Amino acid sequence: MVIDLMLEIQNKINFFNKNKKKLKSSILILGSGRWAKEIISEILNNFRNIKKIFIYTKYPDQLIKWQEANSLKAFSFVKKKDFSLIDCNKAIIANKNIDHYKSIIYLIKKNFDVLVEKPVFLNQKKIKLILKITKKNNANIILGMQYFYAYYFHYLQYKFIKDQRIKKIFFQWNDKKREVKNGMLKRHDKKISFIRDIFFHIYSILSVLKVDNNFILNKKFIIYKKNSFEIANKNNIIIKIYHSRNSFSRKRIIKFILQNNKKIILNFFNDKKIILKISKKIIDIPKIYQDTTLKKQLLFFLYYSRQKLGKMDGNLKKISSLFEILNYIK
């Protein structure tokens, strides 16, 4: 079974390497901020034969200046009224958080498949409406949850955790106060609590690790303290998250306490240099499983047919339970 699962991941890696040059479709991107620029950079760096990048934004100047400063391929700016006219049926929402929901509705009504960056907050009424429209238009909504494509988590699960009983999981999730990534200042939406923002990532990581995402949703089992959050699932696994958006350094660490009190610690601060410790012993993870994640989600989204997108990790139909949890988190 382990061999089969590792072979499945190997096939996904091979699929990426084989098809990244074959990608010749066009893409519509909503937004012009830092994350929109990150997405554009990943597309231009990895998918050299992409046909056209259409951009919808109220602030084209900031993208034009960035494009010229970095000598990038020119973009085609479009107006909303022209969405139906462009040679494109896939769109990425990377605009302001407050605009994500109405952008989803608008695009799926225009018959686009949509990749929407987190955070997105949906109640049951909104989810039902979105799914109703997607069904009518045979469309798909994919959430931007790149850790589904962090193959080092798959490797950890299949190789070392397997069926062992997990007692507790601890996350350390710190962002630097003024962090500059790829030459751009990372800004936080202070209207959204940090724990709600990062819980999208926590949910996807737990999914990859085969940890049941059915949580006990009441005040007794959801504990808030300064810079920490604790929740329990229905298998009595305690998940505790230490977090800060104003830290001196960026941290991404996960620690497992297994039933036999064995400790497993994974430091994934750098996707290309993962540090794994089991009972204080450093374990080498094969390089093939260490790589950045955004480009992989982008390839599968841009390359897959509508039918395959329905089965893609992060599809709203598969993770609607996430929003039940988010509606309980402050």
- Topology as H/E string? HEHEHEEHEHEHEEEHEEEEEEEHHH
The CATH superfamily of the largest domain is known as NAD(P)-binding Rossmann-like Domain
Helix run count: 10
CATH topology of the largest domain: Rossmann fold
**The CATH C-level class name of the largest domain:** Alpha Beta
Question: How large, in whole angstroms, is the Cα Rg?
Answer: 20 Å
Average pLDDT, all residues: 93
**How far is the first residue's CA from the last residue's CA?**
40 Å
Strand order of the largest sheet: 10-11-12-7-13-14-15-16
Largest sheet: 8 strands, mixed
Strand runs, count = 16
Class from secondary-structure proportions: alpha/beta
Q: Architecture of the largest domain, according to CATH? A: 3-Layer(aba) Sandwich
Q: How many distinct folded domains?
A: 2
The portion of residues assigned to helices is 25-40%
Shape: globular
Low-confidence stretches: none
Annotation keywords:
single chain, about 325 residues, alpha/beta, Rossmann fold, Dihydrodipicolinate Reductase, domain 2, 2 domains, 8-stranded mixed β-sheet, about 25% strand, globular
Could you explain the architecture of this structure?
- With about 325 residues, this protein is an alpha/beta fold.
- It has helices at about 1-20, 35-45, 60-70, 100-110, 125-135, 150-160, 195-210, 295-305, 305-310, 320-325; strands at about 25-30, 55, 75, 90-95, 115, 140-145, 165-175, 180, 185, 220-225, 230, 240-245, 250-260, 265, 275-280, 280-285.
- Helix 1 runs antiparallel to helix 6, helix 2 (about 35-45) crosses helix 8 and helix 4 (about 100-110) packs parallel to helix 5 (about 125-135).
- The strands form three sheets. It has an eight-stranded mixed sheet with strand order 10-11-12-7-13-14-15-16, with helices on one face.
- Helices cover about 35% and strands about 25% of the residues.
- The model has no long low-confidence stretch (mean pLDDT about 95).
